[in-house]
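Researcher: Please translate sequence to C-alpha cells.
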Amino acid sequence: NKILEFMKQHKLCVIATVHAEKEGTESALIGFTEKDNLEICFGTSNHSRKYKNIQKNNHVSLVMGWSSEL
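Model: Translation complete:
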C-alpha cells in the first residue's frame, strides 16, 4: 500500500482544527503513528486546545510529508 508506505516514512504532521470558541482554525505540529488500516493515532492532553476543538468539531485536516522534518 503506497499510502501506508508514505505514512511510515514520516513521524510528524500538522493538524488543523476548528476553534471551539470563536471563528477560525488552529494548527499544531504533532507526532503520530499509523496502523495498517491507515488509522492515524496521536496523543494530546485533555486540557489542550486541540482536544477541546476536536471534542466540539471533529473535522480536522492533516499535512504530512515535507522534505526536512525537525
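Researcher: Any highlights?
Model: The longest helix spans residues 49-56.
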